[in-house]
Specification:
The chain has 386 residues and is an alpha/beta fold. The chain contains seven helices and 19 strands. The longest helix has 26 residues, at 25-50.
């Protein structure tokens, strides 16, 4: 547009010089035509400028990250017999998980027959990619005036790019495959199952007298109370916290997709918890069959990247006594790790996507830590036992 205005300015200047140097009817006529030309162009272009319509349609709403996906752009006019002047639009592709933004400038003309442009795009990272026009405007025939299209007239769409599971060889703990749920007991936390004895402790106010072990109390010279066992389920429980850079969060979801796919192949039910919003409680999803994996991944992608730690898992929010608690994070938060260590699972594993720093707080005893860095998940996850 700036170039068109400069050219018109030179034309108008030339007409003015011609009028000054050649005093006559022809020079006055040329000057008047040159001065009225922008307004005439705007008057003729205005009906076509007001009827432009843009459409945005991805040919698929789900894809694997890295896949080449076609996007159909359609430019048309509300009045079939009008032809709009040239327009410009800025197409924006934004990944809500990684924060990556890609922009592409397009030029179009909306005529009687809609103009269809196929634009191919991809996403190197998983996440929800929002498609839309950052801005769009239509110019008059001379390219001197521009009218922006209203935000309500700019179409939007979205595509979910799913994680890509790694091919790392994984192992399954055969001891976790018992005949039924709750046939094993936690070694770290008491429960209410009288079929198993967890430990003895000193009597506290409010304890039932029926749980007092009188012979042991007489020998210890103080009241000793039986602590009952806590049944442990045969499921793996994942707590996801995508709080980090885009590359780290992308690797984190790849880790979950890898482990979940392996458990699905082994017909092992598992559960995943995540906090979709800053102040929202944990959302718990159960994956009972292989077909449950995709809806769970989509829910995680729609939740996007977090900007604050997930709420510390409280006892009432966690499933009762999962066998293997896995904390998938970019950088672990000590309070969350301690809460999981006290939740009663037989195993607690922390998988992080950032290297450990020497200044970080040491993890509680019996908590396993694995570092799975972006770009080398196959190597870092090889041999992991679930």
């Amino acid at each position: 547009m700036a170039r068109n205005r400069i050219v018109y300015g030179l034309v108008l200047l030339s007409a003015g010089v011609f009028f000054v140097c050649f005093n006559g009817y022809l020079s006055l006529y040329v000057l008047r035509v040159a001065a009225a030309l922008p307004f005439l162009s705007l008057l003729l272009s205005l009906p076509g400028m007001l009827g432009v319509r843009l459409e945005l349609k991805p040919l698929a709403t789900r894809a694997r990250k890295g896949d080449d996906l076609p996007l159909q752009l359609r430019f048309s006019h509300r009045v079939p017999w009008l032809v709009s002047p040239r327009g410009r639009a800025t197409l924006t592709l934004s990944n809500t998980l990684t924060g990556q933004v890609q922009q592409e400038r397009l030029e179009f003309t909306a005529a009687r027959d809609p103009a269809v442009l196929t634009y191919r795009f991809t996403s190197p990272a998983c996440g929800k990619v929002e498609l839309g026009f950052l801005k769009a405007r239509v110019t008059d025939y001379l390219g001197l005036f521009a009218f922006p299209l209203r935000a309500a007239e700019l179409p939007e769409a979205s595509v979910l790019f799913l994680p890509a599971p790694a091919t790392a060889p994984l192992l399954l703990d055969t001891a976790a495959q018992t005949a039924g749920e709750g046939e094993r007991y936690s070694q770290f936390r008491p429960g209410d199952d009288p079929a198993e004895l967890f430990d003895f402790r000193e009597y506290r106010e409010g304890d039932r007298l029926s749980r007092v072990h009188w012979k042991l109390s007489q020998r210890m010279d103080e009241l000793q109370v039986r602590e009952l066992g806590l049944p442990v389920s045969d499921r793996v429980f994942f707590l996801l916290e995508p709080l980090g850079t885009g590359e780290q969060c992308d690797a984190l979801l790849d880790v979950f997709a890898t482990l979940s796919a392996f458990l699905g192949e082994q017909e092992m039910p598992h559960r995943v918890a995540f906090a979709p919003g800053k102040d929202q409680a944990l959302t718990l999803l159960a994956l009972e069959a292989p077909e449950d994996a995709r809806p769970a991944l989509e829910a995680l992608l729609l939740a996007g990247r977090r900007t604050s730690p997930v709420p510390i898992p409280l006892e009432r929010e966690l499933p009762p006594g999962s066998a293997h608690l896995m904390y998938l994070c970019c950088t672990p938060f000590p309070a969350t790790v301690r809460a999981l260590a006290q939740a009663g699972g037989e195993r607690v594993t922390v998988i992080r996507t950032t290297p450990r720093q020497n200044t970080e707080e040491a993890l509680p005893p019996l908590v396993e830590e694995i570092t799975a860095l972006p770009g080398q998940l196959d190597q870092d996850l090889a041999g992991l036992t679930l």
